[in-house]
């Protein structure tokens, strides 16, 4: 958010440079470097620095807590930037002037001097612009609930914690809540902390004594969420017209836990965070409203891919849906999901699946930052949803269809106008197992490759007894590539002349999956030797899904991590984890021209015995080299 803090008006300090650290190429701006130099010079002139030669570091990481030397402070600011809202260098000797304070207090609106009023205006939208606490006092009748909540928060933003305190009641509540989230502090610990603060403050303070009361002060800033009851087996949502049912119509499982008395408790709940208000909030905040048009207003050099909008899939979508592309503020989204264990390695098995949406309109430096990774679903465990993942995705897909067909009226604060915001899901990003859950093509077995499909050249290793795709993808190389005629570096005595498999269009894919069920349990999956389709993905309900050039992507992080694990274990010859074992050497003798790696026995015994000797491979490090690498 854009936040302004009152500074001495006579000094006329323009410190926007403090929060404009990097340019579009991720290099430090000259204005930022000069500004840091000005800040360092100012801090070095203060008496406390002349005595200790240390100053508080105002970077995002240190947050004005530790004292550092000048060089360390400069490096921290270059690397991380200033902590939010430090326009007035109060911890480095700068003070407010009395004239400024009087001017602020006598301001007619008071909205331009307090960052928390800016935050409230961003949250409630333009319909409350120009209102202040005086408006609330002059009302002739009780305002509607939303307006009353707005006025209450506005009053709390102006009300000091106690007489003479610089911090307002709302600012303290915001900071306490932020600390709880940032450091994962338990509720009871926050209760004790707030109670201690109340005891320390003067008797007439407004400090709350529990986290629940503190959280109520921020209720108007919350974005909506829904709790939807789910069948314990994950096969049905008690949602919309079916929300009144007591049992799952699919498996006849009870919806609620059996209790003698008291409130009914659902056995399983899905938490859904609607994405529309989160996208609207991006246009309500000045700092992000302009950046949401970055992909159009910042042309890049042809042939260089620095953002998804430079890719072929994005351009194909724009050419296919020109009306959607004509409005640069329409949002392009990416979806990713993966399972993780809530309890780490503690031994308790639990698989929770968050579903995250990312708006790609933002520049590269922002669209992958944590504030813009929107958590849309929390799919509960304890087991992986597997083939029933689409059951949980229903609310999200329903909203995505609404955003495409109808849109949502949104106020763009940067242009001071309303517009009908639409959104489209361009693709998903996941690891290979989740790829199968999202796409409907099983990633297990001989036909696992989603590009080769039934035209795969995979085979089963005779000794290793595993599926292998060794030398299956030379067919994707250009026809004149030198590797195609190589008969010794890949499969022995084999050259590759076949073209790659034909890439299926969206219509051809739809013909293959249109008759399949939308959900299926893996244990009930009847394997078909001709294909690996197991279900019809719920994303086919999106009107534009069949026209996309790329629908599903593999997460580079997972691919790199898994590949590195196998590579380093083999190179370091880690027992039990290396892929270079006797079975691999036997299969290698059948398929490759690498005689120096074949098993042999000095006594002349058969090579099939367990006593066969494995010659050292050139890629395996000796004990001394392994030690040197670890050091």
From TrEMBL:
Domain Transposase-associated span(s) in chain numbering: 15-94
Region (Disordered): 601-631
InterPro entries: Transpos_assoc, Transposase_21
Record's signal peptide: none
Protein name (database record): Transposase-associated domain-containing protein
Gene name linked to the record: LOC130471714
């Amino acid at each position: 958010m854009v936040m302004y803090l009152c500074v001495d008006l006579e000094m006329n300090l323009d410190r926007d440079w403090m929060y404009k650290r990097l340019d579009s190429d991720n290099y430090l701006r000259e204005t930022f470097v000069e500004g840091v130099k000005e800040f360092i010079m100012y801090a070095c002139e203060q008496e406390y620095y002349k005595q200790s030669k240390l100053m508080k570091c105002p970077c995002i990481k240190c947050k004005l807590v530790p004292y550092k030397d000048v060089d360390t402070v400069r490096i921290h600011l270059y690397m991380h930037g200033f902590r939010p809202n430090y326009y007035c260098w109060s911890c480095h000797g700068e003070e407010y002037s009395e004239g400024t304070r009087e001017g602020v207090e006598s301001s007619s609106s008071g909205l331009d001097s307090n960052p928390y009023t800016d935050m409230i205006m961003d949250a409630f939208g333009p319909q409350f612009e120009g209102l202040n606490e005086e408006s609330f006092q002059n009302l002739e009748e009780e305002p509607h609930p939303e307006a009353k909540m707005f006025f209450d928060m506005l009053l709390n933003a102006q009300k000091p914690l106690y007489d003479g305190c610089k911090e307002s009641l709302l600012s303290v509540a915001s900071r306490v809540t932020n600390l709880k989230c940032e450091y994962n502090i338990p509720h009871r610990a926050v209760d004790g902390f707030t109670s201690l603060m109340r005891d320390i403050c003067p008797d007439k303070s407004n400090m709350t004594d529990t986290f629940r009361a503190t959280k109520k002060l921020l209720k108007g800033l919350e974005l909506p969420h829904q709790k939807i009851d789910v069948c314990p087996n994950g096969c049905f949502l008690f949602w919309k017209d079916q929300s009144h049912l007591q049992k799952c119509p699919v498996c006849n499982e009870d919806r609620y836990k059996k209790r003698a008395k008291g409130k009914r408790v659902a056995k399983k709940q899905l938490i859904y965070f609607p994405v529309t208000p989160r996208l609207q909030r991006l246009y309500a905040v000045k700092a992000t409203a302009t950046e949401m048009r970055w992909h159009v207003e910042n042309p890049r050099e042809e042939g260089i891919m620095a953002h998804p909008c430079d890719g072929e899939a994005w351009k194909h979508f724009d050419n296919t849906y020109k009306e959607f592309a004509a409005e640069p503020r329409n949002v392009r989204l990416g979806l990713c999901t993966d399972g993780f264990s809530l309890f780490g390695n503690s031994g308790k098995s639990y698989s929770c699946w968050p579903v995250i949406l990312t708006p790609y309109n933002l520049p590269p430096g922002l669209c992958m930052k944590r504030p813009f990774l929107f958590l849309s679903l929390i799919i509960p465990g304890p087991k992986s949803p597997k083939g029933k993942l689409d059951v949980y995705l229903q609310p999200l897909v329903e909203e995505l269809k609404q955003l495409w067909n109808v849109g949502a009226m949104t106020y763009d604060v940067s242009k001071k106008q309303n517009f009908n915001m639409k959104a489209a899901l361009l693709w998903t990003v996941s690891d290979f197992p989740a790829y199968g859950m999202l796409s409907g093509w099983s990633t297990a077995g001989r036909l696992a490759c989603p590009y080769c499909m039934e035209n795969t050249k995979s085979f089963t290793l005779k000794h290793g007894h595993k599926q292998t795709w060794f030398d299956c993808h030379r067919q994707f190389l250009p026809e004149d590539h030198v590797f195609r005629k190589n008969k010794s570096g890949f499969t022995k005595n084999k050259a590759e002349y076949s073209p790659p498999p034909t890439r299926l269009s969206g219509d051809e894919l739809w013909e293959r999956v249109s008759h399949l069920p939308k959900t299926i349990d893996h244990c009930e999956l009847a394997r078909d030797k001709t294909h690996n389709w197991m279900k019809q993905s719920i994303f086919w309900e999106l009107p534009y899904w069949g026209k996309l050039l790329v629908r599903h992507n593999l997460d580079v992080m997972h691919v790199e991590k898994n590949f590195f694990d196998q590579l380093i274990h083999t190179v370091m010859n880690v027992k039990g984890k290396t892929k270079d074992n006797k079975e691999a050497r036997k299969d290698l003798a059948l398929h490759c021209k690498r005689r120096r790696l074949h098993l042999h026995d000095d006594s002349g015994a058969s090579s099939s015995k367990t006593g066969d000797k494995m010659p050292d491979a050139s890629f395996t490090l000796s004990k001394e080299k392994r030690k040197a690498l670890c050091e």
